[in-house]
Structure prediction request, 148 residues.
Amino acid sequence: MVTLVAEANDPFASDVVQATILPALATGLALASASCALMVTALTSGRMRWRRLHLFAGPATMLALAVAVVFTEQLVRSFTFPAEEMRIHLFCAKSAGFLALPVIVTGVFLWRWPRLRKLHLVCVLTFVGMALVATATGVWVFSLATPK
Ligand code: HEM
Prediction:
């Protein structure tokens, strides 16, 4: 039944969650899964020296992670987070973003100079470690968030 009211009223909070936040979380989960699959492919193809596959999977991993970060930034606007916990997460996320640069640089130079292989591996492992910490702290702050 439809009733006329004096002023337009806001939808129920539960409707907002169902209509806007749940689909966004599903998209975020799909992006995170694609990034994980690409990262595992990049790690395996690099180790196995499957160069052609690696030169696709390495850059694709970085691209997928960048898309996931941009998407998460938009999702974050629908929530309120505790400030201190968010500060810790942002430090880890920014560090992971910064550590992606040496992976790309050593990867590009490794093409010509095979001696950089160990250095690339060290950069990759440092980056993957920090990306895992950033993901864990990201899940942690989301568990403490409240929808706006
Ligand atoms: C722009 C990005 C990247 C470029 C241009 C690049 C390039 C390369 C190249 C040329 C090799 C040597 C492959 C061979 O010997 O045939 C290599 C090895 C490797 N890459 Fe990458 N890579 C990139 C990103 C990544 C990423 C994102 C990961 C993992 C998350 C990764 C993990 C590895 C590993 C584990 C090795 C083997 C190192 C070793 O066994 O010592 N790379 N990479």
